[in-house]
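Input record (one chain):
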Amino acid sequence: MSTHRETFLCFVERGGDDRIVAVNIQATGLNGEPRATRVNGTKAIRIASSVHDVLRHGGIKPRQWSGTKAIDLDYATGAHAELLLLAVKPLRRADRAERIAERIAQMSGEEAAYWHAKSHHPGGLPALRVLLNAGAH
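The corresponding structure, as predicted from the sequence alone:
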């Protein structure tokens, strides 16, 4: 049985009106190298539902999602959430980011783990975005 040493923390930042203003994933890679991915502004609002779906599927309780503390994620949930943020972060159009986030949230754990591994190689994320955006107008 293989064990993953990558670790993931999720931070959900909220504004004064309790709206989500940013979603952050902080990861520590296999060799101990830190990674951080943050999506904020309108894009964070548009993808929040998809991030919430990934976390809920990973067993995160609603009070953790709505709290102010970091959420410790298991490997599968953390990789899935990080993939979602990595895929949408460079996109300019919030509607496209929302569509891709929804499709990533619907992925099985195995599919998300595959694309998460590919996301750390050149061309991996662009290929994923092309695949997920295929047929969209």
